[in-house]
Amino acid sequence: MSQLDHHVLDIDYQSEADRIAARLREITARQLHRRGLVVAISGGIDSSVSAALAVRALGPDRVFTLILPERDSSDDSAARARILAEHLGVRTETVDIAPALAAIGCYRARDEAVRNTLPEYAEGWKFKIVIDGGTEGRINRFRLVAQSPDSVLHERDLALADYLTIVAATNFKQRIRKTLEYFHADRLNYGVVGTPNRVEYDQGFFVKNGDGSADVKPIAHLYKSQVYGMARHLGLPERVCAAIPTTDTYSLSQGQDEFYFALPYQQMDLALWALNHDRPAGELAIALGITPAQAQAVYDDIRNKRRTTQYLHMAPVLAGDVPELG
After folding, report:
1. In this predicted model, what pLDDT tens digit does every residue of 232-273 receive, in sequence order?
2. How far, in Å, CA of 225 to CA of 17, rounded?
3. What is the pLDDT of residues 195-234, one digit of tens each?
4. Which domains does the chain have, with CATH numbers?
5. E strands of the chain, at which residues?
6. What are phi and psi of 324, to 5 degrees?
7. Is the pLDDT score of 88 beyond 80?
8. How many CA atoms lie within 13 A of 321 on its CB side?
9. CA–CA separation, 262 vs 268, rounded Å?
């Protein structure tokens, strides 16, 4: 049995890139019966690698990319996305989705729910949601962190109804983006690429019928560390390769581990790999420098998220059989 460290995630990137490219060609032509692929690029590592693999498979002329910022998006995210599109030589279109989101009440519903928890929250403030409790073996709870214009931080526990409303309103962002992706896919007779990595796919870190909706997901089997390795193997721009994972969803900067995952991505990768390969919690504890109880809590949190997000992976459930469609 190999020592539990990050070397267990080592792969042959050349072979894997070639294999994924071959599968993308086969899937696009023979299963989807489409001429090319659409990829929404955020400037993050996952969408960047997905776009690069699509280009490796089909060539730049058959890959169409979208940059879809909104009111809370980081300017740097869009800048990285433009750098990537130029590097890959692909067609790209930028659409500001903020007006659409405002028209359907995304920002209004979200802000009303925030003010239920923090009445003084107003224009000019920034906020994010953070998660707390899972790594200590407790039930996860959600907290609001808001920053006033004078840079003072305010933290409050979120009531369940307000948390759900904020998330539901925020999910508009991913669903509007996906609507635009499928508009261009239909227009071009292309397929839509989904960009989750293995941890996101496994743990349900996506929006149903939003960023979870796609025709093909080329990196859903790759751990986040492997996605970074693939980016460097493919020679993507350093500014993309060095991008720190964020949700790029709330106005206050937010890491994915703050909002959803139990650990930063390097440690989360190793924890998921260890659980998938039946390594005991004590071994994970040594590898991560945490207590056995904390390691067990991480395992429990992974299993709990698998159970509670199973709904996100489900196809529509039919009340009766339609045997002709298998």
Report:
1. 999 999 999 998 877 677 877 656 555 566 688 899 999 999
2. 15
3. 999 999 999 999 999 999 999 999 999 999 999 999 999 9
4. 6-103+167-259 (3.40.50.620), 121-165 (no CATH)
5. 36-40, 63-67, 91-94, 126-132, 141-147, 153-157, 190-192
6. -65, -25
7. yes
8. 3
9. 7
